[in-house]
Structures are given as structure tokens and as C-alpha cells.
Write a structure and sequence with these properties.
With about 500 residues, the protein is of the alpha/beta class. It contains 17 helices and 17 strands.
Length: about 500
């Protein structure tokens, strides 16, 4: 099967969040199953070009009608860890992708609407006829619209679109001027509530809604989050649209790249280990303490690793830092935020607590340190307000680091409470709390710390269970193949 992935991110060359990891991991899984996979991306200024091999021009002078003029584009081809990638570079004063960041620009809607159109032009002009066009998040929400309204009449009739939503909070809500710029025009047609008209703002377009309405199948990144988005106000205004299209909507749990996240072979960590040699994990704990200048003690290390975003329950993270260091635990944090004010807040917090030998915060991104923290910590805190899937808890379990999580989204699908779960004992792998408040997180941390301190055999059993679980892309990859086959045969 020929699958084209179209996305705004791809790990490790342009990564903001989990979207990049998913595109990489799913693509790799499909390739291992002998499917032809090609990925289309913007050619950003800030990409890790050192990780792209054989980069060369593939298609020159690709002309795209845009905003009542024509823009010429160059399409480059290269390989990212053996994945075939195409990179779109517009030759225009608009400077769409020659920026320092993937997102956060005032013209983001225009930038990614252009990316969507030129991607479809490239498929058409380069004579590519994939069975599946798999697009991701609001940035590519116009792809199914373009395919159905325009490009199925220009050679792509047999292609089917699968649309994956990684975060419902960001939907690409914009003005109808995008219709004119893209040559879709007909605002009275596309602003209809059964097409792209935003459910909350009568005169606005919703690009994510377009992806939902026009694609042959829609997924989000965990079964529980699919329910939350459709029925529990976590669709951020798209609940009615999801209910209307529920027959083609499904949650498919993300996997992790077990080649990248593998304590048996990880070159970043002090001592490699496996479920058969868990005792070696203690050497990574010692090395982490040395690197972060923590006191050598019998306390467990509790980590937070990830983006500093209000979605992640930052008030609970902040509370937990002080709670842990005052209750027989050490706390380490590695993360950064796209919001400068949040970074400033945590920088102030860092200055306050980093003198404590039981705490260390790093307000930045560091891939090597992330690996070392996953290997060296005893527990991982994930107190999210909402969490479509979450990858950090899956990575943590791979490293025998026990997750302490709030029961939302993919966290609820992957972490089962040691004391209170309905799952069999041999499936319980962490600590879970339900309410979004400090009392709930304290109680979960108390139970985890107490088990570590007073019941080491039980804690060891949790580690074994966590490490033995299969969180690879194998099962989820098969689920996507089944979806591809379903919509291709329809």
C-alpha cells in the first residue's frame, strides 16, 4: 500500500511535541511491514539538516495559485532515518517557512493552508497516486477538503484520506479570506455548519472541522480521549461535529519508538539494563544524582519530563515539587514552554529550589538528559488536565519508572492503579488519581512513596509489569492498516 503522510512535524528534525514522534513511529512501523511510505513536510529554516541525508532538489518550479497570484516552489527530497521525505520550499516574499519556529506566528493559518495546497499540487504534478493520504492536526485540515472538492477531479479520485487529531485545543480557526487565497472561494458554501463553518463563531472557518467532515476516516490518539472529545467537552466546540461523524471516528492509542527508547541499548544512559537486569537501574539513579547535584540518599526520585503547558496541570506540578521534597522524595524537572511567561515563572522557581539538594529543575529541552531522567528516576508525574494520549508515561514504563498520573485520555488507557484498578494484578503498573486538585495528587504520591519505602518487593513487581508491557507501534500500526484497508475498499 502506498501511504503519503502530510504533517507539520517529524522527529527528530522538526519536533515541537508528540505529533513529531507519532509521524516518525507510525511511518517506521508501516515501512517494516513493506508498505511504501513518503512524508511531506514544510522546509523550515530551523530543521536539523544534519539529520537529513542525500538532500537534493526533486521538483523545481512547482507553480501554485495563491491569493490571486502564482508562487513557485521547490520540492526537496531526502531521508530521515531511512524514511523518504519531501520538503516544500516556496520562493516567495511571504517567507512562509523560513522562520525560527514551526508555530506561533500571526499568519499560521495562511502558512499551513498554503502548505496543504502545495502538498496536493505536488502529488498531482509529480503523478503520485497513493491509496492513502494520512494528514495530521489542524495544519493539514484542508487536505481532505482539497482532495474532495478539487483534486479528485485531477487524478486523485482513488486516494482516500485519513485524518488524525493529536490535540483538539488548536483547531486553525481563521477568517474566510483563506478561501480566497486558496482559490476555494464560495464562502457561502464552505462556511456552512455542515462543512467548515466554526460551531462557535458564525463568520469563522475551522480547518480542523474541515478535516473531520471531508476525510474518509478520523482518528484521535487514544480510545478514552475519543470518548472525552465527543461527549465530555474536550472537543473544544467540535463535539456535535464528532457526534455527526461518529461512524468514522475512532481512538487509536499511540505507540513509542522502541528503537529510540530502549534501556538495553540506550547510548545516553550510564548503564544499560533490561527487565532481567533491573538492579542496574540503580547505577543510572546514582549518575543522575551526580549530574544534577542531588544528595545521595534513600529517597525516591520523582520526575516531570515534558512541555510546560497549562494542559499539563502545571499548578499540580508546582505543588508536587514542594510536597515531594518535604515528604521523603526528591524531585527533578526537565521542560520548556512556548509561552515565555511560563518559562519565566519556572525560572524563578528554579532559582528558589535548586539550592535544595533534593530538587533540581532544568527549564530547557535536552534529549540526552531526558533519557537519563527516564532511566534514573523511580517515578514519573503526569498530572494533566487533559491528555489525548501521552508518550512520557509509555517511555517511563519502558525504563521501569513508575507513572503517577491523572485518569484522563491516554493516561487512563495505559496506566492502571496498583491498589484500586479493576485490572488483574499482573496488569497494574502505576498510581492513578481522578480529581484535578492537590489533595488527589498528594494521595497518589503518598501511596507511591510509601510503597517504595516500605514494600520494595511490591514496587519491584510494578517495575517488572511496566517494563514487560508492549507499547511499541506494532498493535497500533496494524490498527491503522485495518483502517486504510477499510476506507480503500469503500
Amino acid at each position: 500500500m502506498h501511504v503519503i503522510q502530510i504533517a507539520a512535524e517529524l522527529a527528530p528534525i522538526c519536533k515541537v511535541g508528540g505529533l513529531a514522534d507519532v509521524v516518525q513511529g507510525l511511518s517506521r512501523e508501516l515501512v517494516t511491514r513493506d508498505h511504501l511510505v513518503e512524508i511531506i513536510l514544510p522546509k523550515y529554516k530551523h530543521m536539523r539538516y544534519d539529520l537529513i541525508t542525500e538532500l537534493r532538489k526533486s521538483y523545481e518550479n512547482l507553480i501554485v495559485n495563491w491569493n490571486q497570484r502564482q508562487i513557485s516552489c521547490i520540492v526537496y527530497m531526502g531521508y530521515v532515518d531511512e524514511l523518504t521525505c519531501f520538503f516544500i520550499e516556496p520562493q516567495s516574499e511571504d517567507n512562509f517557512f523560513n522562520r525560527e519556529n514551526c508555530y506561533g506566528e500571526p499568519d499560521d493559518a495562511e502558512r499551513f493552508a498554503f502548505f496543504s495546497k502545495v502538498s496536493m499540487e505536488f502529488l498531482c504534478k509529480s503523478n503520485r497516486h497513493p491509496e492513502i493520504i494520512h494528514c495530521h492536526d489542524w495544519h493539514t485540515g484542508l487536505i481532505p477538503v482539497f482532495k474532495s472538492e478539487v483534486y479528485q477531479h485531477l487524478g486523485l479520485r482513488d486516494s482516500r484520506t485519513c485524518y488524525t487529531i493529536h490535540n483538539f485545543k488548536h483547531q486553525g480557526i481563521c477568517g474566510q479570506e483563506i478561501l480566497c487565497a486558496t482559490d476555494l472561494n464560495r464562502p457561502e458554501y464552505f462556511l456552512s455548519l455542515d462543512r467548515l463553518g466554526d460551531n462557535r463563531h458564525k463568520t469563522a472557518l475551522n480547518l480542523m472541522k474541515g478535516g473531520i467532515v471531508y476525510s474518509e476516516f478520523v482518528t484521535t490518539v487514544s480510545p478514552t480521549h475519543a470518548i472525552e472529545a465527543r461527549n465530555q467537552n474536550l472537543g473544544f466546540g467540535l463535539e456535535k461535529t464528532l457526534q455527526t461523524h461518529q461512524d468514522k471516528f475512532k481512538g487509536v492509542l499511540n505507540g513509542i519508538d522502541c528503537k529510540v527508547w530502549n534501556p538495553r541499548e540506550d547510548s545516553f544512559i550510564a548503564k544499560n539494563y533490561s527487565v532481567q537486569t533491573i538492579e542496574r537501574k540503580s547505577q543510572n539513579k546514582r549518575a543522575l544524582r551526580e549530574r544534577l547535584h542531588l544528595e545521595d540518599s534513600k529517597r525516591p526520585i520523582i520526575a516531570y519530563i515534558g512541555r510546560l503547558d497549562t494542559q499539563k496541570g502545571l499548578e499540580l506540578v508546582r505543588h508536587s515539587i514542594f510536597y515531594c521534597i518535604n515528604n521523603k522524595a526528591q524531585f527533578v524537572l526537565l521542560g520548556t514552554s512556548p509561552d515565555p511567561s511560563i518559562n519565566d515563572d519556572f525560572d524563578e522557581l528554579k532559582a528558589l529550589v535548586n539550592e535544595d539538594l533534593n530538587c533540581h529543575l532544568e527549564i530547557r529541552f535536552d534529549e540526552e538528559l531526558a533519557h537519563q531522567m527516564f532511566a534514573g528516576a523511580d517515578m514519573l508525574l503526569v498530572p494533566s488536565r487533559f491528555e489525548p494520549c501521552g508518550l512520557t508515561q509509555l517511555i517511563a514504563m519502558r525504563y521501569g519508572t513508575i507513572p503517577v498520573v491523572r485518569s484522563v485520555g491516554g493516561l487512563a488507557d495505559t496506566v492502571f492503579d496498583k491498589d484500586n484498578s479493576e485490572k488483574d494484578l499482573d496488569m497494574r503498573n502505576g498510581y492513578v488519581f481522578k480529581n484535578d486538585d492537590v489533595i488527589a495528587v498528594e494521595r497518589a504520591l503518598d501511596r507511591a512513596i510509601a510503597c517504595f519505602d516500605t514494600a520494595p518487593k511490591d514496587f519491584h513487581s510494578l517495575i517488572v509489569t511496566a517494563m514487560q508491557a508492549d507499547h511499541s507501534w506494532s498493535k497500533s500500526g496494524q490498527c491503522y492498516i485495518d483502517i486504510y484497508k477499510h476506507i480503500s475498499s469503500g
